[in-house]
Write a structure and sequence with these properties.
354 residues; mainly beta; five-stranded antiparallel beta sheet; four-stranded antiparallel beta sheet; 29 strands; 49% strand
């Protein structure tokens, strides 16, 4: 019986691999070429929280204390530009951030704060000019801990979702003039803090939420109900899209096999495809990788960056030593990877196919 189940699981995963291979067969990167390195200023008690792509020219880096910098990707003698400095940095406690593109070259930066007052704030960026910080009032469960722990921009313009320490998820709609946003609570039941949110579109628009309760819910935005629920093997920290709209990749708190690929159509009949590496300490909540086409890239606590081909996760990943300290986030941008360390060091790595 065990062998029959194993054969069935392998057949299921082979079907997923065939889905990943429907598009162009891009070769797996075989070499990494370090083309640039730099450091951003960071206060003594501050930490990098999120790096987000804006366009082909720059990224936005947000720190725990609310400092916002623009990072120029390549071909620039000036690696970064300061966009925003909070008046009282020690009171910020930023947990996450997302960007809303509102047209007319304006970007809205939404910040999630782990505090009871001003849990959500936003600023508008046009060129190099940043507006004053505005607060969005959030209806939260005062019997629980206050604060917003996760944000994501939705696929619809000027919409985003938030998840909180109070276990609640809200869907937000920003006004066209970027002056305010209204919210609607979603009937998604988590029993612990929300760690990650991700909009997807398979057969319909959905919002995926992952919490410290080890539950991952897929909320259908059209029918306004939970379409699927899966339970992970440990606490999930981040959710990523894959090449198949029916599959998501989760980063999970393990000492090995930290990554899980789930097919929403097979819940709960088939287990996840799990892969990873052996480490002395599990990844932290704020450590985050990235996906593109059929690749996944992530960092670890000793400064290494790995790239997996999701068509064959049993194969050893390609490895690059970037830092001597923890990799907080890795972002895929065009034909490069930007690795970001705990000490605010940045490495821009060019990917060469083999």
């Amino acid at each position: 019986m065990t062998s029959i189940i194993a054969m069935a699981n392998q057949l299921w995963w082979n079907q997923i691999i065939l889905q990943f291979r429907r598009t162009t067969e891009n070769p797996l990167p075989t070499t990494f070429d370090l083309i640039d390195n730099f450091r951003l200023p960071l206060e003594l008690q501050d930490r990098l929280r999120r790096v987000i792509n804006t366009d082909s020219f720059s990224l936005i880096a947000v720190t725990m204390q609310g400092f916002i910098n623009s990072i120029h990707k390549i071909d620039s003698s000036r690696h970064y530009q300061s966009l925003w400095s909070p008046s009282i940095p020690t009171q910020e406690h930023v947990d996450d951030a997302c960007l809303l593109h509102s047209g007319h070259d304006t970007i809205t930066i939404v910040l999630a704060h782990a505090r009871e007052d001003a849990q959500l704030t936003f600023l508008s960026l046009k060129g190099n000019q940043v507006s004053n910080e505005n607060t969005l009032p959030r209806n939260w469960n005062k019997a629980k801990k206050g604060g917003v722990s996760a944000l994501t921009a939705m696929m619809q313009p000027l919409k985003f979702a938030s998840g909180g320490y109070d276990h609640k998820i809200h869907l937000w709609s920003m006004k066209d003039d970027l002056s305010h946003a209204s919210s609607m609570p979603l009937a998604v039941k988590h029993t612990s803090v929300i760690h990650s949110l991700l909009p997807i579109r398979d057969t319909s628009h959905k919002l995926v939420s992952a919490g410290a309760d080890r539950n991952v819910h897929l909320w259908d935005l059209c029918s306004e109900r939970v379409a699927h629920t899966l339970r992970t093997s440990n606490i999930p920290y981040n959710i990523h899209r894959t090449e198949s709209p029916f599959c998501t990749l989760l980063e999970v708190a393990h000492l090995d096999l930290q990554y899980e690929v789930h097919d929403h159509r097979m819940i709960p009949r088939r287990p996840a495809q799990r892969f990873g590496f052996t480490t002395q300490a599990p990844p932290g909540r704020y450590m985050k990788g990235d996906t593109w086409t059929h690749f996944f890239v992530s960092g670890d606590r000793i400064g290494r960056v790995r790239v997996w081909d999701l068509r064959n996760v049993s194969k050893e990943p390609y490895l690059c030593q970037c830092f001597e300290n923890e990799v907080i986030q890795v972002v895929k941008t065009d034909s490069h990877i930007l690795a970001c360390s705990k000490r605010s060091e940045y490495r821009l790595i060019s990917i060469h196919g083999g």
